[in-house]
C-alpha cells in the first residue's frame, strides 16, 4: 500500500510522529518544522533531529517558509499555540491577531490553502472551544469557518487521556479534518445521523468509547471571517460557549453535543511508571528543610496579600492539592515548569519507600507515553519543559490506528 505522507508542524520533540509511527508503518513523515522564538539554542529541534534525523526537517520560523517549500502530503498534523485567532478584513491588516503566537493558526491555514492535503489532525488546549472570555467560542468558530472555506469537513473531540486508560489527566481538544476531494471527506458529507456518528460511528468514536451526555445543538457559521470575529457570541461575556466537547462541521453547519467517556479497559497509574529509588539521582529527593515549603504551597489557603504596587490589600484563596501525589491514580497534567528543585504548587512530588522526591525526566516521558530517554541530551529542566508542552502520544496512536483503517476501507 502507498504510504500516508505526513507533514508535522510545531513538532516539538516529535509526539505526533511517535504516535503515528506506532499506529502504522504506512505513516511516513516527509517534512517537519520546529522553531522556538526568542531562544539561543533550538533544544527541541535538536532532540527531534537526534531521534529522527535531519533529513526533511526545518528549523526556521514557519512564517519564513514558503508554502511551496512544504512538500505534497496526505496528512498535516500539529499542536499549535492557543492565543487569538481573530481576523480583520485582510490578514495583512489583522489587528485582532494576538501577538506573534496568535498568527500561527494562519500559518497552518496558509499551508492548507496551498497544498490541500486530504486530512489534518490538530491538537490544542480545550479552552480553545470557549475563548476569548468576552466572545465565548469565537476563536474556534473562526477556525472552523476558515477550514470550511478551504473545503474541509471537521470533527472534534475533547479527550482526557486518563479517562481512556492512559497515565495522565490531560484534557486536550483534537481536531480531524477531511478535504472534500478525499474519500473520507466525501463520506463525511453523506452522514445522516450526526448523533450516531459522534457517539458510535466516527473515527473519534471508534478510538475513544463514549456515550452521549446531552442533546445536540445545531447552528450555522454565517458571514465572512471578519464578520464572525466581530459578531460571534458578541456581548455574551458571561455566557457559555456554544461548542460542546464533541462536534461535527460540514459546509459551515455545526452540530455539537456533550459526550462522556465510556472506557472499560485497564488503567495505567503514576505508580506503574516510577523508577526504583536507587535509580533516581539524589538531586530529585526533597530535602527535609524544604518539606515545609512544599506543604505550604500544596495546601489550601485564604490569606490577605498586598498588591505588587502596595496600593491595596486583597484576599487570596486556593484549595488544597494532594501531597504527595497518589500513586494509585494517573498523574496530574505535566506543566512546563515541572523541572527544577525549587518548591512549587504544580510540580509532582511522590513518596516512595518513605522518601519524598520529584519526578525524573524518564518518568515524565513515560507519563506522556514517550520512549524512555527520548529527550536525553538536553538539561533536566528542558526535558521537563518539553514534556509540559508535549501531548500524550497514546492518543495519537489510537487515532492513527482507526484513521489508517478508514483510509484503507475508503480507498
Describe the 3D structure.
- With about 400 residues, the protein is of the alpha/beta class.
- The chain has 2 domains: about 5-265 and about 390-410, 3-Layer(aba) Sandwich (Rossmann fold), CATH 3.40.50; about 275-325 and about 335-390, DNA Methylase, Chain A, domain 2 (Alpha-Beta Complex).
- The chain has helices spanning about 15-25, 45-50, 100, 105-115, 140-150, 185-190, 195-200, 205, 225-230, 290-300, 360-365, 380-390, 395-410; strands at about 5-10, 25-35, 55-60, 75-80, 120-125, 150-160, 170-180, 210, 215-220, 245-250, 255, 260, 300-305, 315-320, 350, 355-360.
- The strands form 4 sheets. It has a 10-stranded mixed β-sheet, sandwiched between helices.
Write the layout of secondary structure elements.
Elements: E1 4-9, H1 15-23, E2 27-33, H2 43-52, E3 57-58, E4 75-79, H3 99-102, H4 104-115, E5 119-125, H5 138-149, E6 152-160, E7 171-179, H6 183-188, H7 194-201, H8 203-207, E8 210-212, E9 217-220, H9 225-231, E10 246-250, E11 253-257, E12 259-261, H10 288-298, E13 301-306, E14 313-318, E15 349-352, E16 355-358, H11 361-367, H12 380-389, H13 393-410
Parallel strand pairs: 1-2, 1-4, 2-3, 4-5
Antiparallel strand pairs: 5-7, 6-7, 6-10, 8-12, 9-11, 10-11, 13-14, 15-16
Amino acid at each position: 500500500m502507498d504510504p500516508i505522507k505526513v507533514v508535522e508542524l510545531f513538532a516539538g520533540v516529535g509526539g505526533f510522529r511517535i504516535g503515528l509511527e506506532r499506529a502504522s508503518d504506512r505513516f511516513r513523515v516527509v517534512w517537519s518544522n520546529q522553531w522556538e522564538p526568542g531562544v539561543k539554542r533550538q533544544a527541541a529541534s535538536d532532540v527531534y533531529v537526534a531521534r529522527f534525523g535531519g533529513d526533511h526537517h526545518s528549523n526556521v520560523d514557519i512564517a519564513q517558509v514558503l508554502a511551496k517549500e512544504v512538500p505534497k502530503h496526505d496528512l498535516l498534523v500539529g499542536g499549535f499555540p492557543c492565543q487569538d485567532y481573530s481576523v480583520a478584513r485582510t490578514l495583512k491588516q489583522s489587528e485582532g491577531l494576538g501577538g506573534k503566537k496568535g498568527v500561527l493558526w494562519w500559518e497552518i491555514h496558509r499551508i492548507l490553502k496551498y497544498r490541500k492535503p486530504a486530512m489534518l489532525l490538530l491538537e490544542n488546549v480545550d479552552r480553545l472551544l470557549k475563548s476569548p472570555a468576552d466572545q465565548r467560542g469565537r476563536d474556534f468558530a473562526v477556525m472552523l469557518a476558515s477550514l470550511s472555506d478551504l473545503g474541509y469537513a471537521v470533527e472534534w473531540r475533547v479527550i482526557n487521556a486518563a479517562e481512556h486508560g492512559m497515565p495522565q489527566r490531560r484534557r486536550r481538544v483534537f481536531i480531524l479534518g477531511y478535504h472534500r476531494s478525499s474519500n473520507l471527506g466525501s463520506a463525511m458529507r453523506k452522514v445522516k445521523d450526526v448523533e450516531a456518528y459522534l457517539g458510535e460511528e466516527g473515527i473519534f468514536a471508534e478510538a475513544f468509547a463514549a456515550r452521549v451526555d446531552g442533546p445536540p445543538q445545531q447552528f450555522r457559521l454565517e458571514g465572512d471571517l471578519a464578520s464572525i470575529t466581530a459578531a460571534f457570541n458578541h456581548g455574551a461575556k458571561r455566557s457559555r460557549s456554544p461548542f460542546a466537547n464533541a462536534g461535527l462541521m460540514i459546509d459551515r453547519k455545526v452540530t455539537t453535543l456533550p459526550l462522556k467517556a465510556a472506557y472499560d479497559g485497564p488503567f495505567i497509574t503514576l505508580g506503574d511508571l516510577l523508577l526504583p529509588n536507587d535509580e533516581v539521582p539524589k538531586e530529585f529527593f526533597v530535602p527535609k528543610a524544604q518539606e515545609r515549603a512544599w506543604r505550604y504551597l500544596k495546601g489550601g489557603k485564604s490569606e490577605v496579600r498586598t498588591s505588587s504596587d502596595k496600593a491595596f490589600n486583597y484576599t487570596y484563596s486556593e484549595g488544597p492539592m494532594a501531597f504527595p501525589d497518589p500513586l494509585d491514580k494517573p498523574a496530574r497534567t505535566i506543566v512546563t515548569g515541572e523541572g527544577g528543585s525549587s518548591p512549587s504548587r504544580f510540580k509532582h512530588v511522590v513518596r516512595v519507600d518513605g522518601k519524598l522526591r520529584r519526578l525524573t525526566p524518564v518518568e515524565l516521558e513515560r507519563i506522556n507515553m514517550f520512549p524512555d530517554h527520548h529527550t536525553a541530551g538536553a538539561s533536566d529542566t528542558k526535558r521537563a519543559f518539553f514534556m509540559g508542552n508535549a501531548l500524550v502520544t497514546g492518543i495519537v496512536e489510537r487515532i492513527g490506528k482507526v484513521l489508517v483503517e478508514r483510509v484503507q476501507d475508503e480507498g
